[in-house]
Amino acid sequence: MADVATGAQSPRAALGTAVEGGPAPDPGDTAGTAGTAEPAGPAGTAEPAGPAGTAGPGDAPEPGDAAGGGLAAEGTGPTAGVPHRVLDQVVVRFAGDSGDGMQLTGDRFTTSSAMLGNDLSTLPDFPAEIRAPAGTLAGVSAFQVHISDHDILTPGDRPDVLVAMNPAALRANVGDLDPGATILVNTDAFEERNLAKAGYASNPLRDGTLDRFRVLEVAMTSMTMEAVKPSGTKPRDAERSKNFFALGLVSFMYTRPVEPTLAWIAGRFARTPMVAQANTLAFKAGWNFGETAELFDSVYEVRPAHLEPGTYTNISGNTAMAWGLVAAGQLARLPVFLGSYPITPASDILHELSKRKNFGVRTVQAEDEIAGIGAALGAAYGGALGVTTTSGPGIALKSETMGLAVSLELPLLILDIQRGGPSTGLPTKTEQADLLQAMFGRHGESPIPIVAPATPGDCFFVAIEAARIALKYRTPVLVLSDGYLANGAEPWRLPVVEDLPDISVPFASEPNHRRDDGSYDFWPYLRDPVTLARPWAVPGTSGLEHRIGGLEKADGSGDVSYSPANHETMVRLRAAKVAGIAADIAALEVDDPGGNGELLVLGWGSTYGAITAGARRARARGAKVATAHLRHLNPFPPNLAEVVRGYERVLVPEMNLGQLVRLVRAELLVDARALSKVSGQPFRAGEIEAAIMEMLEAPAARPVGSELTAGSLS
Amino acid sequence: MTDTVTPGLAAAGTAAAAATTPGAATPGAAPSGATAASARPVAVTTKKDWTSDQEVRWCPGCGDYSILTAVQMLMPELGVRREDTVFVSGIGCSSRFPYYMSTYGMHSIHGRAPAIATGLAVSRPELDIWVITGDGDALSIGGNHLLHALRRNVNLTILLFNNQIYGLTKGQYSPTSEPGKVTKSTPFGSLDHPYNPVSLALGAEATFVARTHDMDRKHMMETFRRAHAHRGASLVEIYQNCNVFNDGAFDAILTKDARPQMLIPLQDGEPIRFGPEGERGVVIEDGTARVVEVAEVGVDALAVHDEHREDPSLAFMLSRLAAGPYTPTPIGVFRDVERADYASLVNGQVEAAMVEKGPGDLASLLASGSTWTVD
User: Fold this and answer.
1) What is the ipTM of this complex?
2) Digit-coded pLDDT (tens) for B91-107
């Protein structure tokens, strides 16, 4: 077993972006190499902590040596005796079988990096099957994390380090690596059967196919099994701790603190002490192996990022969304009611909210998607903050009830955590192709406001904003998140609760309509003259008894009306009410550092990180490019037309075949161009950068309305 | 467009002026109004107080009228308040019912009333919620929601108007139509096997299941009263005549002359017998209910009705006595058992969490994961 340091690339390029600068490939967003971007941290000033050793291959000990050499780590911290090198960022991808625990491994690496103070962004990428056949390409589950000492926006375009637990994991991911990247393989899994399952005719570790990379061969399974023997774990179970061995090894490579992981293992497996002990032993064995095996000429350090002062936590989009809903209930002084049917990738919001009963949150796991929104609407009618969560297929089922909510003019939140479609599509992959469904996917003229978060942490604020609009205007509101935001994570500065807005609204309490004889009665559709919202009169309020329904209602009285003129009035009133929200939302902000942008990149939703990073890179290459990101998609911010018309060229990147661009072109008569990607994967910053350069270099060559695709540019 | 309110010209501020803030309402508590209302004495009311100002638009002679009258006459006797009463319906002739009650009401969408009512019942457990539905609404398009409302035991009084036909869409067969039914959509006769709503409800382990019919106001009122008194999901099937598209569907059992021979009144704790002189009865043999002549088997051989029996099997056997409304058919309460209602369970968990953990604190929640501080 040898460390096969074969690549021609320098190890610093292989393991991340070293701060000394130099011509290393830029695996992450931007800052380390380009020199013109503005990392928040002192990327250019940090000194390597130790001498940069030469990249000498070292001989690895036999399996068992490390485990037998004592569990030296013991939380004593990094890496006595091994030189330190400081990187400004690194992208690591853990890949293995669905059952190998790669999501958990990635999540632990992320958390310990977060605790260290790095900025980070993650991309979990797993199959829809819970356990696809072991060892096959279909079963590969991966988790990519980008950690840095400065402000980053994406999980990174290409990994610097790939941890491949088996041949399928290698094969499924090696195509994403740049030459010189490091591959850490579990050699025990590279036997004939697994190679065949992955479709390898010969062993890639031996046949030269990996010559462009730095390959570190480690017998993870056998060393894990040896290491966990003291725990008394059966061999079959012992093997399952190998992800912790990998985590220990990578934690050593990147000098991650060990305490958070050891404490987490102790807590998580408190009820199964044998498992806790096995995982602890495996983790330490991985760490110790790194230290004693001399696989590495040096270890690497990514220092804390210079984030804004405050208290931070590492948060995923779905958790942020759930917390935002809890917050919205508090800020509205209303109980939250969630009616939901489990669906990937939205279910975690249901899971999280169902834990929050002491906030007065009530959750009902309904019999189907329709009942989920039905129950939420029923609760809203009763005066609760009604919420339903789903993904695209569920939205299709809920549309009739959304129409009823439009007609009843009751507040309601509908959260669509988008995934690849149509039909079951790609349940665990991301897409933004529900925008037009959200805009128009109902019968009749049925306008619904739409809000979309830009980052995982932004989901919290978008939930509150959606609730504010719903309550103030008595309207259903759609929130368009997606799988990338839902499962991705980032450090999130905790908001100051006292600074969050009061979004409470009054219930109607008295009759509001004066009859000819001077007495009063209650008219459920007598509107507020400014917001056009109708009164929200909840059952239990004496004197306001009234009937509402899906039949067209007479303007004002709310009685059933089939009058042609009344229907025209009501359709226009409902449209005017939603359109009027434009006056009550933030103007679109433009990021145009030079003030001389020749191209506007207009995005929405989860593409924020890739667009912003891609634009930074393009600017570093001299491009005059501005960016703007839409949070409100219906209605648009009032200044959108002015912003868009201020640029000669407009590029709209979306993870669909051009939905926002269609709205922009239709509503603003602007020749905006689409940049499309529908692979189930988020944009890479490099893809945005390439599209920007192409738009700026050869604008005239493209026919009107033509579309760029990410694939053709990267 | 001569409507009273147009944007910008609305009677200024009426809506706004009429409103109050929820003020001290605590998140998690039921919205204000409800608790305050229950402290007040219930005013004495008459049928008129429960009748809305809307013109009733069912066809002349429709069975729905007598059901509406029975409900409007019953409400003053129940000791409940109009403002705490909500009628939720789906789509169909019967589902226009809420417009005619001067209570809170929602005419929703086809089949979904039980789902909507479930959300309302969970968030406002103190309300009296009635679901008005029909055989198409409850058993066809909304079959799923009905089953789940029953098994969850949501505190709803569900009145299922069964006329064995689709009326509002002008006469197609329904899931309760007899096989061979010739309608506009089945000119050669329907092929679908019908289901029996009482059997269905018992199969879902509904805690209260009854049957009544639109020709007997007293029986309807008594049955509705029992259904309303039951805490949990109550399903009442009402045989209802559609005189336009399915006239006389129940004549074989419901004409004045037929009733004594063909209706089997269920009385809790009593031997099950019927006929002008009580000369016929029901026995249970080999897991099946069967009609017998009392003179042949003796009174002691008759099955004794037990509404409160936990096991729904006996009630189910009774529901199978008649394959359709043309042989002797039981009416009255099939089953009435106690089981915690869904809203009580949901809200019980909420209250227990509040006691155990204290009312939620948002700042603590946000900081509940691993956190670190940047200076």
Assistant:
1) 0.92
2) 999 999 999 999 999 99
